[in-house]
Amino acid sequence: MVHSNCHTHTVFCDGKNTPEEMLLAAIDKGFSCLGFSFHGPMTPDAVWTIRPEKLPAYTAEIRRLQNVYGDRIEILHGIELDRDCCGVDPADYDYMIAAVHQLTGGELHYDVDDTAATLRTCRDTLYGGSWLALAADYYDRVAEFTCRVRPTIVAHLDLIEKFNEDNALFDSGDPAYQALACDCADRILAACPDVLFEVNTGAMYRCGKKQPYPAPFLLRHLYERGAKVIVTADAHTTDALDFAFDKALAAIRAAGFDTVYELRKVDGKAKAVSVKL
Ligand SMILES: [Zn+2]
Ligand SMILES: [Zn+2]
Fold it and tell me: Which ligand does the CA of 213 lie closest to?
């Protein structure tokens, strides 16, 4: 079983609980390790990201928690970055999660995980109504950003599937769509063979998605390519910290894996540690 989570948001960005509340909940659950991540600064209207002026207080709070609770649980100080590093130096953090949450064109930008309506508007405005064109651009951005910044973890690889339960928006069984997603994974693996791909239960908690990211075909592809996977909750509340981890592990097993990875603190540093299923 997995007793850790390295994708944890707090009130410093769009989470609902303080870092201390999240940490106490993790200790209550018997976790070995909790990694804090936050959405790195972006444009001022991206209200789900941390404000740059809050960065010192955030770091100070994680250090305080380390001093108070560091003998009871491993604590990691991470960051989830989007598109570029936004003035943040990743070297200041124990690990980095790379993600693409926005698609942009000129002055326009759309959060792909906002609502189905936002994603449709994005498709119509930026991609002439074509889901495939949207998917091609999304996966290209994920691969480009990940290969450029070489993170520890790739977040929710197929985030554009968030509202696509039962193909409500587009046909994710379309071979042309699947080729885009698989090609993205291959580009990432060619540049970063040791990167950890998230199996992320965040949307299962937040909007009732039946399965984690990535979709079964993509998880299977990752297995066939020898990729490493890590289970994360993308938690924004205390009760989400290990939400549906059993289902995520079942999906991982079903794809063929016999090993997952956990991010742990070893000799003061973040380290991917394998766990046999
Ligand atoms: Zn994210
Ligand atoms: Zn996140």
Answer: 1
Cβ neighbors of 274 (< 8 A, separation 6 or more) are 259, 260, 261
| pTM check: above 0.70 | yes
DSSP helix, strand, coil percent of the chain (3-state; round to 5): 40, 20, 35
Residues composing the chain? 277
- Strands 95-99 vs 153-154: parallel, antiparallel or unpaired: parallel
Cα of 223 from ligand 1 centre, angstroms? 22
Centroid of ligand 1 to alpha carbon of 156 (angstroms): 7
How many angstroms does the Cα of residue 101 sit away from the middle of ligand 1?
7
Task: Report the alpha-carbon distance of residue 242 to residue 232 in Å, rounded.
Answer: 8
Sequential pLDDT tens for the chain (277 residues)? 899 999 999 998 888 999 999 999 999 999 999 999 988 877 777 778 888 888 899 999 999 999 999 999 999 999 999 877 677 888 899 999 999 999 999 989 999 999 999 999 999 999 999 999 999 999 999 999 999 999 999 999 999 999 999 999 999 999 999 999 999 999 999 999 999 999 999 999 999 999 999 999 999 999 999 999 999 999 999 999 999 999 999 999 999 999 999 999 999 999 999 999 9
Find the 29 Cα to ligand 2 centroid distance in Å.
20
Question: Residue 240 CA: which ligand is closest?
Answer: 2
Domain positions in the chain: 4-272
Tell me the ligand closest to 156's alpha carbon.
Answer: 1
Give me ligand 2 centre to Cα 106, in Å. 25
Supply the CATH classification number for the domain 4-272: 3.20.20.140
